[in-house]
Amino acid sequence: MMNNKTKLIGFLKAILKNEYPLYMSKDFSSRVMEKINKPVHSYNIFSYGLRIASAVTFAVVTLFVMDNALTDKIQYSKSNIDQEILSPTRNVANQMEKCEHIEDNAQSSDSLECK
Amino acid sequence: MQDDDKEILDEILNGNVSKYEIIIHKYQARVISLCFKYTKSYPDAEDVAQEAFLKAFNSLDKFRFESKFYSWLHRIAINCSLNYINSKEKVKEKETISDNFGLIDNGGEISAETPYNVYNMQIMAENIESAYNTLPEDLKLMVKLRDIDDLSYDEMSRIAKLPIGTIKSKLHRARDILIKVLGKYADDE
User: Fold this and answer.
1) Which chain B residue lies closest to A16 (C-alpha atoms)?
2) Residues contacting residue B143 through CB under 8 Å, at least 6 positions apart
3) Is the reported ipTM for this assembly greater than 0.85?
4) Are B42 and A27 in contact (CB < 8 Å)?
5) Which of A69, A86, B21, B102 has its CA 20 to 30 A from that of A28?
C-alpha cells in the first residue's frame, strides 16, 4: 500500500515536471529488485579448490615445458676439464727452457736438445 | 543540504535492501524518460534505466549526501545512456563492415509488450493535467512549489506565508485528489 502510494507520487511528480515516458513496464521495479537480490557470485570451497588446482596444474605444465622443450640438449662431461695432460705430445714442450747453446746453422732436427 | 530520501537511504545502507524499491518507485518514470531521450526506444530505455538503478545501488556507500540523491542518480543514468550509445555505435560499425542491415530500430514504438503489462503514461498525464487545473488555487500552489519546483517546506512556508503545518496539510489534500485520479489508471496490484 505504502509502495503503491510512493509509486503514484513518483508518477505524479514525473507528469507534473513533464519528465515521463509514454509507456512503462508495470514490473520494472520488481525486475530491478530481482537483480539486486540475486547473488552475483557464489564462491564456495569447491570453486576455491578448483582455482588452486588449476593454478598448480598450470605451474607444473609450464615447468615441464620449459625444462624439456625450450632448452637445448646439453651433454655434460663427467670428467674434469682442468685435468693435467700427463703425456706431452711430440712438438709441445710443457716447460720453457734455455736454448742459448743452439747454433743457428745447426741442422734442423725434430729433436731439440735444450739443456 | 537535507535530502528527502536520506532516511530511506540510511535504512538501505544499514541492510534493509527491500527499501530500495521505494526509491525505484519514486524515480522510475523520470529515469526511464531521461534514458529514452538518448535511446529513442522504450525497451532500451528501460534496460539502461535498470542498469542505472543497479549501479546506484551498488555505489550507494559512496554517496556522501552532498547533493540530492536524484541529482546523483540522474548523472549515473546519463553515463549509462552514453555508454549505451557508444556500444550501439560499435554494433552499427560492425554491421556496416559485414553488410548486414538487419537491425530493426523501432524508435519510440513499443513492440513486444501488450497494454496489460505497461502503464500508458500519456493517458495518466492527460487526466492529471485536467485534475490539476481544477484544483483550488491554494492547493495548486502547494503542488507547484513542492512537486514541480522541489522547494523545502521552509521555503514553501516563506513564499506562501503560511505555517509549515498548514503547508503540509494543504499539500496532502492536493496530492490525495491527484493520486485518486492516477490510481484509476495504475491499479495493477
Assistant:
1) B148
2) A16, B132, B135, B171, B174, B175, B178
3) no
4) no
5) B102
